[in-house]
Amino acid sequence: MGQEESGLMVPGAENPPASPSSDWRYTIQTIAMERRLIPVNKSQYKFRKELGAGAFGSVYSARHKPVAIKVVSLATWSSSDGEMLAESILTEIEMSKRLSRASNDVVRMFDFDFHRQSGLAFLVMELGQHDLEKTLKTQHRLSNTERKIIWRQLASIAMVLHDNNIVHLDIKPQNLIVFPGNRIKLGDLGIAQKAYRHRVGSNGTWLYSAPEVTTASRHHVAINTSKSDVWSWGAVLYRMTYREPPEYTPPCYRPPKNQHTYRDPQLVDVLRHTLVLDIRERVDPPWLIRHPYTVTL
Length: 297
Hints:
Strand order of the largest sheet: 1-2-3-4-6-5
Radius of gyration: 20 Å
Largest sheet: 6 strands, antiparallel
Strand content: 15-25%
CATH superfamily of the largest domain: Transferase(Phosphotransferase) domain 1
Shape: globular
Structural class: alpha+beta
Number of helices: 9
CATH topology of the largest domain: Transferase(Phosphotransferase), domain 1
Helix content: 25-40%
Number of strands: 13
Order of helices and strands: HEEEEHEEEHHEEEEEHEHHHH
């Protein structure tokens, strides 16, 4: 899509430094999208408010039909960074389409476009109401029933990933999108990987991603398994129970300081078996879906 059509240019990209040093990387500046009419393939979308932002892009609500659009800038002086971001986008498209065919538990992706002149990629997705983190921040405390209804959906999503041999690696409340009827769907598959493939270095989000994911050394090689996501599911349940994520200090399932252990022994049992530092001793998604806390309401 040309500059004339999109009207977007990365600020400063037209006048780069003449001789950047070998370790210098161009920093992408924020581009205001609100209230702009931007083409994505053959459709025109009126961008509205920003819904959230991450390390590599932002998500906006937009109208042609109500959608969420993720905007990622691929303009960079580092070829390795550009390749990483491009691979992340392609992974998100592939994984989203694959999982959407298998289940309605994953945010659907409708369209994709790349504007060459601006270096911006656009991913058009289902629009939810907000993310789970917003629910947890606005509600002082979830009731037992509310927490269990959400947990049953999370366990179902865990099985969808497991059955499709996909490891998400970045499950957290911000990536769990709430739809009408309190339906939860999983989003942001940008760093997801196929199970039983090699993973190099660290990734994910501190405390919500498994310790073997976030604390690995730069060149450490590991095998992806769904047990890494199991930590994350336990961390989200812990957050719903104690209002903050767990620590990596064992026993990781114990409550935060100045809080008592939750009185439901079945919930505590799930935390005890998911928030385990040794991945070999951590349970798998089928264990979660069969657990009494999951199957009884």
